[in-house]
Amino acid sequence: MIVVTGATGNIGRPLTRALAAAGEQVTAVSRNPAEVPDGVRHVVADLSDPKSLAPALTGAKSLFLLLSGDLHAAGSNPADTVRLAADHGVRRVVLLSTLGVVTRPFGPTRIMMSALEGEVRDSGLDWAVLRPGGFASNALWWAESVRRHGLVAAPFGDVGVPVVDPADIADVAAACLLDDRHSEGVYELTGPQVVTPREQAAALAEVLGTPVRFHEFTRAEAKAGMVKMMPGELADDTLDILGAPTPDEVRVRPDVEQVLGRAPRSFADWARRHVEAFR
Q1: pLDDT band for position 76 (50/70/90)?
Q2: pLDDT, tens only, 223-268
Q3: From residue 99, how far is each of 92, 140, 228, 245 by CA, in Å?
Q4: What angle do CA 75, 101, 169 make, to 5 degrees?
Q5: Are 22 and 52 in contact (CB under 8 A)?
Q6: Shortest CA distance to 184 belongs to which of 195, 192, 176, 175?
Q7: What is the pLDDT of residue 259?
């Protein structure tokens, strides 16, 4: 059995579907009750209390570990989850980390994630680590304004990074969970090219078949909206990356293609699959 945490999110949902389609027994874990594919067991657990995960881990062979940012902010110890998995006989852990542990290693969240990578490597379990960059799905922040006003509003309109499709992250995670060749693999995951917010707006207009205007926020305007959803420190950190990405943050990685044997999906590919969210 394979346990998938964060199973109702942008990565966990397609990962759960892929594993179930491959004939695996899957336990989907989320904080709240949720619908899951036929044949998939669902367990409600909150990783801020690792012991709540114990019922899901009983009989499991592998664990996909996805931790939300608020777990770090709450001061919990995610390493407890790794130790709990080992105590329950789990033999393989695939950890969703972040590219930031190598591109900007000094932020509090990235320091904690780097330490968790170390816990996973030293756990005695089979392991793999995934380090994605920015997500294409962050464009969903604009969905309401596109639906209502045909508008994308964002800072740094002409500064981009190679955003990765969460479905590609899920596909790489499935490969790491199912294929021994990826044992002790560390994969840095990006999309196929740098794409700016203005270019993302144009891609949305193309798939919608209607105009989508772009308005460039100032940094202060962007932060005022972001602090409604995240701590101010994280908002500043995110804006630093969006406004002045380092050469390493704009570098396209080959890892998706190396693992999957195909090119990574583009932002336009993501937009075509999610167009209804913007109508």
Answers
A1: low
A2: 999 998 888 888 898 899 999 999 999 999 999 999 999 999 999 9
A3: 21, 21, 25, 12
A4: 95
A5: no
A6: 176
A7: 98
Residues 6+ away with beta carbon under 8 Å from 101? 110, 113, 114, 117, 131
Cα gap 107→130, rounded to integer Å: 18
Which is it for strands 2-4 and 62-65: parallel, antiparallel or unpaired? parallel
> Within a 10 A sphere around the Cβ of 188, how many other Cβ atoms?
22
Question: Buried b / exposed e across 228-239, counting CB within 10 Å, b at 16+?
Answer: eeeeeebbebbb
From residue 185, give the alpha-carbon distance in Å to each of 75, 117, 121, 195, 274: 28, 12, 10, 27, 30
Residue holding tokens 């329950």?
88
Residues 10 and 265: their CA atoms lie apart, in Å, by: 15
Q: Which candidate, 58, 61, 62, places its Cα nearest to that of 43?
A: 58
- Each residue's pLDDT tens digit, 174-187: 999 999 999 999 99
Residue 71 has pLDDT above 70, yes or no: no
Task: Report d(CA 243, CA 253) in Å as an integer.
Answer: 20
Interatomic CA distance for residues 273 and 250, integer angstroms: 24
Here the tokens at position 65 are 């570990």
d(CA 169, CA 131): 9
Q: Say which DSSP state 123 is in.
A: S
Residue with tokens 């005695």: 124
